[in-house]
Amino acid sequence: MVRGKALARCGLVLLSLWLCIQSVPISVDKTKEKAHEEELGPPQSAETGLHYDRYLREVIEYLEKDPHFKEKLKNANMDDIKQGKLSKELDFVHHNFRTKLDELKREEMSRLRMLLKAKNDIQEGNGRTVDHQALLRQFEHLNHMNPDTFEVEDLDRLIKSATKDLENFDKDRHDEFRRYEMMKEHERRERLKNMNEEDRKKEEQHYEEMKKKHADHPKVNHPGSVDQLKEVWQEADGLDPEYFDPKTFFKMHDSNGDGFFDETELEALFTKELEKVYNPENEEDDMVEMEEERLRMREHVMNEVDTNKDRLVSMSEFMAATKKEEFFEKDEWETLDQNSFYTEEELKEYEQHLANEETDINKKSVELQKQREELEKKQEELNAQRMGLQQAVEEMERLKAQSTKAEVKRKYHIVKIVV
């Protein structure tokens, strides 16, 4: 199957890029109103990383299977999307698909309720104040006031939420990587604190050797430059760099043939450059850093080539970029080891944050231990009370038995006297 070219051209560029929606050419007799049952099969597409990923992908894919909506999607532009015009076309979607969308929404509502309950329980269990507004933001991608049916407002909210969230996706990845790097340095320093002076010197020396070894690599070409692309042309494609042709290169690496480079196709072009710096077999090379490097390279190319900012590179954009001065950039690409992601002060703030968290956890642990001891004490008291009660019952039973036995003897003597 081939990803729908219409999606790449329409205003829903973020969704088309991240969802990697695949569409099948549909030949439909429009005089027949009934939709084919096989078109209601489970959708398949790439993950977006959003917490409502599955719901988003399934909704978009089911909508694209409707002939009317698919045609409107093909002709839509960004303004239509932002103004909600595309969402209004939901009213004309076939009943079979609308019914399926209703089911998807009910499933999503059920999932969100379970998610919020779990988060609420965790926060209350940790003794933290529950941020109800933050919890409610989990519902922004749908109209939770109507939990049963999928309506125009639901599609409008879904598109707007996905667009906003995906625009922040790269920023979140950078922030996560920054925290990763600070944690790595924090843990290294903590290990040094627990070493004697001799071991500490050895560890510091080894650390510097690994840094130097990692930095010793061949020249990394500027991503998207003629030298970088020629290297791919020669080493990956097996062609003579003297006969490098940008248009042929684009067609060869447009893997799905839709006339665009999406972010995945762009990132694939950087593999040769990344292999110069990173090797999973080497102790000094961090594969998490390699993925951050790949992201930086892709962002660099997108900033220079993607002129309409739709997160896709068309053939015309690519060809225009080959005529710019930047395309002939000869300077070496500055890799991660040549950049600092945080200051010493920021690291100290992060370590303080970790220390505060540890203090809170220890405090909570002490409180829980105290509560446990109190519960155990109460349990012991209850057990003692239960044992005392049991002994009292047994004593009453014994006295009752003795009283009954004495009464029988008394009556026996009375009968004997009478007789």
UniProtKB/TrEMBL annotation:
Domain EF-hand, first and last residues per copy: 241-276
Entry GO MF terms: calcium ion binding; DNA binding; guanyl-nucleotide exchange factor activity
Bilayer topology term: Peripheral membrane protein
Subcellular localization, as worded in the UniProt entry: Cytoplasm; Golgi apparatus; Membrane; Secreted
Segments passing through the bilayer: none
Origin organism lineage: Eukaryota, Metazoa, Chordata, Craniata, Vertebrata
Keywords for this protein: Calcium, Coiled coil, Cytoplasm, DNA-binding, Golgi apparatus, Guanine-nucleotide releasing factor, Membrane, Metal-binding, Phosphoprotein, Repeat, Secreted, Signal
Coiled-coil stretches noted in the UniProt entry, renumbered to this chain: 347-409
Protein name: Nucleobindin 2
InterPro entries: EF-hand-dom_pair, EF_Hand_1_Ca_BS, EF_hand_dom, NUCB1_N, Nucleobindin
SUPFAM superfamilies: EF-hand
Gene3D superfamilies per the UniProt record, alphabetical: EF-hand
The gene coding this protein: NUCB2
Compositionally biased region (Basic and acidic residues): 188-211
Residues annotated as signal peptide: 1-23
